[in-house]
Amino acid sequence: MMGRKLLFCLAAALVGAVALPAKAENLTLYCSPQIEWCNLMVEAFTKETGIEVAMTRKSSGETFAQIKAESSNPRGDIWWGGTGDPHLQAAEEGLTEEYRSPMLAELHPWATRQAEQAGYRTVGIYAGALGFGYNTELLAEKGLPAPECWEDLTREEYRDEIQVANPNSSGTSYTTLATLVQIFGEEKAFDLLKAMHANMNQYTKSGSAPIKAAARGETAIGITFMHDMVTQVVQGFPIAIVAPCEGTGYEIGSMSIIKGARNMDSAKKFYDFALRADIQSRAQEAQAYQVPSNAAAVPPKESPDLTKLKLIDYDFALYGSSDERRRLLKRWDDEVGALAN
């Protein structure tokens, strides 16, 4: 009797075990490009894999600060997009995981160099050049000349006519800061930044906000990445795009798996997914005009041709390092940001 009861209990336990539903896969994504592209990536990934994604969109600087603050108890799994400098800093500080995707062989050399430089704790997913754009109708209405060079942005006639983001919150603006230092030398660069300050009507939180404000006629000039300007042009706004005469810097937008990710398998699946040519080719559906890192991906026809621009030899190793980034941001706070207080 006891034997039959024991067998019945074992059988019931086995049936219950079989009937238990499989644990649902999840992913927490920190996303730094434009929200439309973030949403497209989430929808495409969930549709293909069934993995539910909780996504938060913040600028690069804000996301880096959040990952650092959460390092003792990580809440995110993967950080997709945003300028490469804070991704490199996160790698240096041990905030991200090493991962060598099987997709690496398909990427442009500039994307794999980013991975190698970071000990494979980040990877390049797109590239974009820095510049400034202006509202042609607003400049004509105010009788202002069209700026052509970085130094033009210090001219008195542009008083209160320019916007740029705060480099503490915006990777775009930190790239601007590092670019000017590399073009002019640090002392002259900070002299220029202080002279430009007199012409700033706002330091925004997001790097793309200044060109959106220019498109709406809220400011005449916005300093940002050219691909963000292209988005406004495609939408029909009167924006002219300028590649500064002295030359300009560029970003390698990056992706990193967060150290201690709770959903590591899902994070690696998203990582591989985001590096595929077919997925990167869909960026134009979200009006994202960066140059994709997969060599087989088809960039939008409107994307800036980086081969035709006067790009500087941007030192990602130096300006993506923790010490240099902290030092430059502190100097900006002390000498430029303090002027706004």
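(the above was protein one; protein two follows)
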Amino acid sequence: MTGTRISSTVDFEKAGRQTGFLRLPHSVHESAYGWIPIPVACLKNGKGPTVLLNSGNHGDEYEGQVTLMKLIRELRPEQVQGRIIFIPAANFPAAMAGRRTSPIDGGNLNRSFPGDPNGTPTKMIAHYIDSVILPLCDYAFDLHSGGSSLMYVPSALGSVVPGDTERNAKVLELLKVFGAPIGYVSNNPLGMGADQTLAASAHRHGVTSIGTEAGGSGTVTPTALKIAETGVRRLLKHLGIVGDLRVEPSPGTRLMEIGGPDYFVYTSEGGLFEPLVELGDTVKKDQPAAAIHFSHTPWREPEVVRFERDGVVLCKRIPGRTERGDCLFHLGTDYRV
């Protein structure tokens, strides 16, 4: 028994195509015996690995959600060898609100794992994925982007674990197969969200996982969407789960890494953010990254924020208004084994 209070209208052991909902009990003033309907789909046929395709972990990250909705409609059970579990809007309240976090409890799903079966809705979702879905899986692909506050060079990402040569080789291989312009790794074995992310839960369950940062800025672009769609299709074909998919060969990916705090640039003071570099630029340590202008004292000289190391700009803040502690940029450097 997993202890989850969430039930599923989909039987993950049944062959064929199923669509339905994860029913999350939610008793509120307007609906005493109500439940939150989290959409789920499952395609199962023959023998083969099980893969979780997850998006909407953050509700304002749309590229992955569109990718998975289109793929659910396209694929047929007879194409599959193994099992694909789709959760395209994992934090459903956040997805419906178009927000990073849930409007119900303020929960950030990708900072809530392994969750709590008796917690708030976000923690209950995390617990269900951790305790019910991931134990079924061999692979988990969690599709993210920069959401409303960030924009990325379209990227795939994974984590490497010191000393785990076999697992690390699988992660690097999948990053190359995905074929995003950038495939970056974190030297933190649990990723930037420490031990509270879906990727961290996958690692604890022995599930091989990678994710994406496929664009962002609270919108969907044709370029970023194509990278996400073709990347997922390449993974399914490479793993033999859907062998007859037509997909363009990988154009190659630049492997990079994200290291410690010096890879990130943060706002020093609240104000208006003037970026001094573009996404994809190569920058040097001490190079000016941004100027922060002060609306209340416009005659004051702006505060100049500088890069703390050499690198390539992988991510940039979108909103012009910023407060101390906001991330303005993060860098990547070429990956060395």
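Reviewer note on protein two: Helices lie at 63-74, 92-97, 121-133, 165-178, 198-204, 222-238.
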